[in-house]
């Protein structure tokens, strides 16, 4: 059997028999790696052994054949590091180093506030070029993963490189290998200058502008580029690819300005900056050094700079990874905020004493969009029912309201298309994350290189523009519900949700701030992919502008998170005026969670820190995690009994009415039974 074993940032393959113990296999592995890397493995003591898949602990006394399969991955945690410190001491030292004042550097950008991931990596992410997912990149962004190539990927990379070496030796005319780039494609470069050609390419294309990606996001970019190269169509050498992996595993990332890509031929400029640091030029960041000269950062972290051979520079910068990495991060955050928007809308509806009749399963069954039906089902599970009662809803059981304003009544229809759009965009991004986007592409099995256009960023650019447009609607709906909460004429609650209006302003400017963010989103939702500016002497005469599509989509999502946090705070404040009545069990849990960071607003106070805490709560998906167990339980109940979660709200006479009034009317004024039935029949 062959077992792939990870110790720290190093991985080795060991062969063992099925009747060998786990303990014996581990001792042989440590001995082997200690011989190869004595500075990394100074001891034979280990803390624990885990199987990578499932992260399950392994008993050292068990036999290899009973527990593991051929080519399984195992993680060994050593008891000490190279300087004799324990694992916990090493992590604590890194944290303390981050907290120390940094010496002055040429950049005024401090990444440490965004680099809150200094937890010990617990997951091994095996890259094969075909199966990376957006959620995997988010784990990389959080610092939870280290990387390793699959054995199959190593084989493909080696075959591709062998063909490139053969082409270089024979000095065949191949774009980017023995020729210049862009409009210089017809310029033949002599054999003795092929390495200089690639180095010049990286240096000349490192011309970005603006603030750099935070180290955590640059790490996503690096992971994604490694995954694309692992497909084996780019011609990168295995040695250089492993150097990139070593840099990732040591948390070393290049200084990558966010602006400067037009999304075709790929993200040339940011990917050039990513490569520049790995060559030992420009700036890099690591937990030990902060921002510093790349050569120093590599040296301090015991890393070797890359040494480029023919085509390797081009292999490093051709591709859509800047757009796609940010897109993957954005679509995952959009997924989280969209589900939480359903929860927050449900809480607001209960506080505003709305009716749940618009969420009846039969209404949505006859318009069977997936997102619409999923949202309606969530709302039914969260709001008042026999299985999940709300005292607030019970208090107005016999009111005469039949239908609500659209931002309450049409939540399934509006939120639903957002959910469907996110699923659509996520599918495109996931394909892009596992696609060969280099040029020329190296087909080792055909012994041929072919120039094509896979570097064009139109797919992720269009998808991310669409994502921004869709997700922005969550904030549009949320801000209008927030307005209803603070408006006494619409809510019946005190104006601006303050018990002493006039002396206190309450939530007056919370709604104002939300309105400003919604307005900004309207501008940001103009598609950047509608534009194209020809570049490279009109050789690249149509470009995607995908870089800006990705950056503004993320900004839109951030604004949506903020607006929904403001609505959530207002809805919780509204509950204070309905006490002692409480909402349903899951919604009451959300209320209680918010109250851990924001107490009731009895008089005006500085609210911005509390708003930020609730935004962070939403960003961490806490609202969804709070209600998810209830949704599963109540969802299972509805599957068994479709009527179980239907609303109990009735008219005064007990006649259940479904939208008996025109859309622009909100109340049924008559309480006479015959009049109610007559209106229902007429409509």
TrEMBL record:
This is Histidine ammonia-lyase. The keyword Lyase applies. SUPFAM superfamilies: L-aspartase-like. Residues 662-675 have a biased composition (Acidic residues). GO terms for molecular function: histidine ammonia-lyase activity. CDD domains: PAL-HAL. It catalyses: L-histidine = trans-urocanate + NH4(+). Residues 662-683 are annotated as: Disordered. GO terms for cellular component: cytoplasm. It is an enzyme of class 4 (lyase). GO terms for biological process: L-histidine catabolic process. Belongs to the PAL/histidase family. Its EC number is 4.3.1.3. Keywords: Histidine metabolism, Lyase. Pfam families: Lyase_aromatic, Par3_HAL_N_term. Pathway: Amino-acid degradation; L-histidine degradation into L-glutamate; N-formimidoyl-L-glutamate from L-histidine: step 1/3. Residues 1-79 form the Par3/HAL N-terminal domain. The keyword Lyase applies. It comes from the Eukaryota.
């Amino acid at each position: 059997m062959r077992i792939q074993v990870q110790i720290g940032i190093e991985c080795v393959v060991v062969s063992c028999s099925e009747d060998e113990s786990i303990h014996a296999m581990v001792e042989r592995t440590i001995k082997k790696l200690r011989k190869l890397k004595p500075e990394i493995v100074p001891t034979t003591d280990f803390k624990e052994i885990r199987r990578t898949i499932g992260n399950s602990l392994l008993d050292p006394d068990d036999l290899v054949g009973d527990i593991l399969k051929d080519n399984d991955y195992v993680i060994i945690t050593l008891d000490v590091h190279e300087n004799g410190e324990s694992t916990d001491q090493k992590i604590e030292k890194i944290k303390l180093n981050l907290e120390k004042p940094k010496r002055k550097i040429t950049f005024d950008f401090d990444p440490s506030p965004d680099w809150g991931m200094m937890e010990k990596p617990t997951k091994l992410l095996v890259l094969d070029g075909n199966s990376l997912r957006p959620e995997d990149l988010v784990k990389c962004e959080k610092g939870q993963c280290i990387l390793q190539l699959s054995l199959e990927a190593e084989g493909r990379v080696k075959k591709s490189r062998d063909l490139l070496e053969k082409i270089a030796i024979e000095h065949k005319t191949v774009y980017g290998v023995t020729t210049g780039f862009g409009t210089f494609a017809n310029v033949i470069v002599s054999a003795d200058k092929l390495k200089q050609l690639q180095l010049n390419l990286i240096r000349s294309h490192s011309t970005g502008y603006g603030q750099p990606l935070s180290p955590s996001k640059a790490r996503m970019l690096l992971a994604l580029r490694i995954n694309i190269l692992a497909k084996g169509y780019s011609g990168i050498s295995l040695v250089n690819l492993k150097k990139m992996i070593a840099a990732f595993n040591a948390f070393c990332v290049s200084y990558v300005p966010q602006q400067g890509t037009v999304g075709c031929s790929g993200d040339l400029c940011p990917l050039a900056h990513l490569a520049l640091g790995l060559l030992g030029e420009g700036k890099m960041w690591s937990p030990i050094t902060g921002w510093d000269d790349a050569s120093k950062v590599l040296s301090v972290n015991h890393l070797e700079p890359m040494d480029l051979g023919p085509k390797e520079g081009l292999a490093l910068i051709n591709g859509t990874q800047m757009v796609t990495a940010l897109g993957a991060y954005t679509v995952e955050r959009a997924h989280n905020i969209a589900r939480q928007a359903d929860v927050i809308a449900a809480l607001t509806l209960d506080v505003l004493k709305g009716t749940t009749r618009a969420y009846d399963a039969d209404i949505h069954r006859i318009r069977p969009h997936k997102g619409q039906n999923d949202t309606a089902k969530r709302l039914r599970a969260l709001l008042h029912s026999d299985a999940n009662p709300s005292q607030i809803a019970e208090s107005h059981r016999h009111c005469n309201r039949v239908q609500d304003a659209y931002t309450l009544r049409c939540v399934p229809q509006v939120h639903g298309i957002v959910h469907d759009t996110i699923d659509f965009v996520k599918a495109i991004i996931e394909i892009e994350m596992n696609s060969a986007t280099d040029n020329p592409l190296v087909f080792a099995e055909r012994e041929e290189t072919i120039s094509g256009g896979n570097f064009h960023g139109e797919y992720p650019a269009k998808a991310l523009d669409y994502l921004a447009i869709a997700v922005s609607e969550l904030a549009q709906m949320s801000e209008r519900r927030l307005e209803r909460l603070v408006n006494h004429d619409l809510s019946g609650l005190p104006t601006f949700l303050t018990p002493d209006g006039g002396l206190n302003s309450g939530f007056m400017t919370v709604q104002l701030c939300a309105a400003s963010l919604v307005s900004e989103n309207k501008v940001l939702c103009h598609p950047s992919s509608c534009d194209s500016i020809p570049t490279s002497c009109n050789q690249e005469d149509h470009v995607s502008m995908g870089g800006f599509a990705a950056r503004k989509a993320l900004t839109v999502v951030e604004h949506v998170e903020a607006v929904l946090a403001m609505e959530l705070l207002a809805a919780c404040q509204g509950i204070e005026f309905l006490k002692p009545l409480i909402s349903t069990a899951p919604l009451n849990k959300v209320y209680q969670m918010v109250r851990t960071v924001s107490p009731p607003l009895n008089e005006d106070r500085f609210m911005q820190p509390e708003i930020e805490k609730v935004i962070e709560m939403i960003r961490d998906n806490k609202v969804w995690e709070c209600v998810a167990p209830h949704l599963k339980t109540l969802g299972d109940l509805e599957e068994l009994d479709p009527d179980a979660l239907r609303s109990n709200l009735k008219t005064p006479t007990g006649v259940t009415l479904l939208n008996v009034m025109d859309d622009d009317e909100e109340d049924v004024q008559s309480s006479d039974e015959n009049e109610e039935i007559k209106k229902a029949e007429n409509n």
